[in-house]
Amino acid sequence: MFFAFAGCKKTISVKILSMIRFLGYIFVMGAIALVIGLGGAIVYVSTFAKDLPNYELLEKYEPPVMTRIHASDGSLMGEFSTKRRLYLPIQVVSEQIKAAFISAEDKKFYEHFGLDPEGLARAVVNNIKNIGAGKRLEGASTITQQVAKNFLLTSDATLQRKIKEAILSLRIEKAYSKDRILELYLNEIYLGRGAYGIAAAALTYFNKSVSELTLEEVAYLAALPKGPGNYDPFKYTERAIIRRNWVIDRMVENGYVSARDGTIAKGKALNVTLRGSDTYVFAADYFTEEVRRQLIGRYGSNTLYEGGLSVRTTLDPKLQIIARAALQNGLVKFDRNHGWRGPYNHIALSNDWGTALSQITAFFDVPEWRLAVVLESTENGVKIGLQSKKEFAGPVSKEREKGFIAASDMKWALRMINEKGQRFMAKNPTGVLKEGDVIFVQAKKGKKNAWLLQQPPKVQGAIIAMEPVTGRILALVGGFSYSQSEFNRATQAYRQPGSVFKPFVYAAALDNGYTPASVILDAPVEIDQGPLLGIWRPKNYGGTFSGPSTLRYGVEHSRNLMTVRLANDLSMPIIAEYAERFGIYDKLQPVLSMSLGAGETTVLRMVSAYSVIANGGRSIQPSMIDRIQDRYGHTIYRHDNRICENCNVRKWENQPEPMLIDERDQVLDPMTAYQITSMMEGVVQRGTAVRLQYLNRPIAGKSGTTNDSKDAWFIGFTPDIVVGVFIGFDSPKPLGLGGTGSVLAAPVFGEFMHHAMAGKPRVDFKPPEGMMHIAIDPKTGMRAKQGNRNVIIEAFKPGTGPADVYQIIGGTESFQEGVKVPLISPQVNRVIESGVGGLY
User: Fold this and answer.
1) Phi, psi (deg, nearest 5) at residue 40
2) Residues with catalytic function
3) Following DSSP, what letter does each residue of 138-176 receive, concatenated?
């Protein structure tokens, strides 16, 4: 029995030994396979490591950043970009924002080495379950991996890309700090609705800066990286709230937020407030577009749309709104006086007229006007349906608002104009509007559901307000509505300035020996322009003439015949040189008709030229931009280049106040500038712009009207501001009876100045030192005699004064020792002095 047991034991030992040998063999083979597998994997991975993008590019990362345009008070005017992004350094990112994105995307971000093995394992297990349950698969990418993918790789869902992503993540973690990696991530990620990075997203969804965001708002932004379209606040509101609350729970779980604060935040609605056009300075579209064109011309499109420039403009938002209202009111008033041209559009009425009406676009920059459809037209008035406002998500509101236009409020529209330009009168509103007509209306003040009929004017215009000392453009409007027409009539339209050019003819004369009291003959004249052009017979507006008159009278009453005679006596090459010196024209043809403003120029050029007169004769460079900074805050352009040597001293030690050194050219003698300013003051006091006396402050200005009243101008100024107004059709044609600068443009100027100068002190024009003031007879220009009540205090330069001998430029007579000596027949002379026509 003993031997039997011993044999059995020996058999077992042999089996165990065999088993051990077998397991050893398996282990060795497994180890060999593992080594071979690892070696193969290393070789496989190393093949990708050779051709990886250079992660060091992240050090010089400069993403496309939008350029922002600001008004002079800092308010936002516009943004230009290929990608809406504002770059934020990590130092200004709040801890709450960091916590939200880390909790949502990578809770161990500050602990792992670029990869999260635990998270990867968890994702593998969960994805096995999700596949069985038919659920969406989970990702396991760390923030570092997302940076590697977003910056250096494609989004291809392949094994090769994941391997490259992992290798790059390890390298990025060794090269950069966690904060730098997080900074790259928070500025690069796409968060929906065109917003890249957290700063742009905060503005887009909540119209706030990141520092103003609340807990629930931060959590919503952190919910978006997984799929912004899936959590749209309007299309998928409930889904968005669930995802946001999930982020808040993770923040509580990770200890970033208390349970109480988390519960309060989860109970709140999304409260998304999408940024609209009301974010920007109102009515500044023409100004902003002109700045955009200038930036492209200066730096190119790439820098504008991707360079992240910060542009501070010269725009004064308050003056801009005043300018826009003044111009629109003037254009509408003119248009109304010429009658109703017909509806803006027409739709077929149905049970849901609101949907059809919503397809028609209104003027976004004329918010006082709304589109409406005529529901019923009667003798007593018109019943209308108003266009509903669109909700953020896009669908039209189901509310239908109705109103009424009383017949008594649309009498002006009874004067109608058909397509052929023929005028006729309608008896009542039924002859003006039909059912389905789409029109513009404006709410009538003080009455509920009462509306006024409006009509977009065909006539157009422009207005510019400029600071005369610096050339800074404070306000600019280039038409009735930018949404109606983007063509900028302030800077792009070349029109004849007409009589607003005359002051430069007279300024040239004052610089060349004439005085404001010099006398010129205001009488018919014939100019032989050669065989091609023939005889030119200029006329005064209204066909009258005044006989011998002073230069001052010629400016105040805008006398064409006097101006032509003066230009002829002075010589046109001199006048052409002055016009070019002031920047009105690049090259002016030296022919006499140009003295009446026949050459084409822009409103901006004319206002700039008047600013030279207003500032005492110094040249200016008109500017819409004060300063430009690059994405790093470095100033790369500044308009004001005046030198100040002692402005940057460390401390005040009783030294004199530093003086700005003005090295600009003196374009016009300061005394001449004051004389022509004084003469243009007379335009308001006694001349073509007496309607502006109600402003009750010193104003110099000049009206202008071109042939056949195709262009109407007024440019006026105080010591502090120059304002130019132009009105005319885009395709030049007569403005009709009364279509003059004094009737059409001067009231626009007056409305602007009335509001712009409200509450500001009255400032007189200051004469240069040495200027003499002498009382003269306004008719003869000679020194006023004692007891003469009809006198003008005229400004004279040293060494000049009223003439001792009465002499007429282009004249018919002279005084010699008090005796009038006729130079032409007494019969013709009587006609001239009578001021009636008949010689042309």
Assistant:
1) -65, -40
2) 105, 499
3) PP---HHHHHHHHHHS----SHHHHHHHHHHHHHHHHHS
